[in-house]
Write a structure and sequence with these properties.
Layout: H1 3-28, H2 41-66, H3 71-93, E1 105-107, E2 113-115, H4 132-196, H5 202-218, E3 225-226, H6 227-244, E4 247-257, E5 262-264, H7 270-279, E6 286-296, E7 299-307, H8 320-332, E8 337-344, E9 347-355, E10 357-358, H9 359-363
Parallel strand pairs: 4-6
Antiparallel strand pairs: 1-2, 3-5, 5-10, 6-7, 7-9, 8-9
Helix pairs in contact: 2-3, 2-4, 3-4, 4-5, 4-6, 4-8, 5-6, 7-8
């Protein structure tokens, strides 16, 4: 939790509230600009009680009653407080207009009474003017309620977004952890196959595996990696597979386009390639796998096809890689990818079209 950020945010809120209150109070003083001495205690009491009502409603009544769906209690409390404040203003600060004289008496120099013209007689204001304080307090409550409810809605939306982001991050980490053991299992099987044959290529296979493990250890914890490094990892994986196979004449990989300054989710394509070698290799150690990667601007086109030579499926491991990559694509590239998978006769084809991000954007 960033305490400094929370403190700064609270300070900003206090400053904004103070500025708004100063503006409102100054605006209400404009009618007195010719005679500030006419400002009486009623003015100060009204604004002081209004501000207190605002924050009592903001910090207590709305959170504890309105947002808890205790609507009757909330309305009862607000109406009671507004009524009390209005009565205080009427009976303690408003003049008693009923006792005002209907006209004032004036006398001339001879002592003769002169009656004022009726237009100059001081009349009391209409009765409903006494209830204007109620409108003032209701306005204060309405603004306070609106601000608080909108603030709570925004906070809830932010918390929901953070929760969804954390959930997505957790799911991605889980999927990545699935990928690493799955790859390691296949790679070790390849090296075991070489060792079983007492092949002189075992040291080369171990070196290649160590380079791949170094990449997985230091690079794949990042949100995105350089496309160049990811493709180099794929090349190492293919070379590792070639070492264990007896016939590699039908293994093709073509890469076209500029891979610089582009990023991709780590270990995103390897599951397709793993499955191609797993099911595209026959019992004689011959494989038929074609891979094509084409990069144009920020669009990556990935094609892979293999003949289905190995029809035996492991019920415990089958489909882990494909399900994994589909889930990751849906999370990371929800509107930026197209995936087509088809099987015709004994050929399995995958085409993935992916919109990449520039490496600078991912770093920022």
């Amino acid at each position: 939790m960033n305490l400094e950020g929370i403190t700064n945010n609270n300070s900003n809120k206090i400053l904004i509230h103070s500025i708004i209150w100063c503006f409102l109070i100054i605006a209400s003083l404009l009618p007195f600009y010719e005679n500030y001495s006419s400002i009486n205690a009623e003015f100060y009491v009204q604004w002081s009680s209004g501000i207190l009502l605002f924050y009592a409603n903001y910090f207590y009544f709305v959170p504890h009653f309105l947002l808890q769906k205790k609507y009757t209690t909330y309305l009862g409390v607000i109406i009671s407080i507004v009524t009390v404040l209005t009565c205080i203003k009427i009976f303690y600060f408003s003049p008693d207009f009923h006792n005002l004289p209907q006209h004032q008496k004036l006398f001339d120099i001879h002592g003769k009474e002169i009656f004022l013209n009726k237009h100059f007689q001081k009349k009391p204001p209409p009765f409903f003017f006494k209830f204007f304080p109620s409108l003032f307090y209701l306005f204060i409550v309405s603004i306070s309620t609106l601000i608080k409810t909108l603030s709570e809605f925004y906070t809830n939306q932010q918390n929901k977004l953070i929760s969804e982001t954390n959930k997505t991050s957790t799911e991605l980490n889980y999927l990545r952890k699935q990928t690493n053991p799955h790859f390691l299992f296949n790679a070790l099987n390849s090296i075991y196959s070489l060792a079983y044959k007492k092949s002189d290529l075992v040291p080369d296979a171990i070196v290649t595996l160590s380079e791949m493990m170094r990449y997985m250890l230091y690079e794949t914890d990042n949100k995105a990696v350089s496309l160049e490094k990811e493709i180099n990892y794929i090349k190492n994986y293919i070379e590792l597979q070639k070492l264990r196979l007896n016939n590699i004449e039908n293994i093709f990989i073509n890469i076209h386009g500029d891979t610089r300054n582009k990023s991709i989710e780590p270990l995103l394509l390897i599951s397709f390639i793993e499955n191609a070698f797993k099911y595209g290799t026959d019992y004689k150690g011959a494989a038929f796998v074609k891979i094509k990667i084409n990069i144009v601007d920020n669009i990556l086109d990935f094609w892979i096809e293999n003949k289905i030579e190995n029809q035996i499926k492991d019920p415990n491991n089958s489909g882990i890689g494909l399900n994994n990559i589909k889930n990751r694509l849906n999370i990371l590239y929800p509107n930026a990818h197209q995936l087509n998978i088809e099987q015709m006769d004994n050929v399995y084809r995958v085409h993935l079209n992916l919109k990449l991000e520039s490496l600078e954007n991912e770093i920022r």
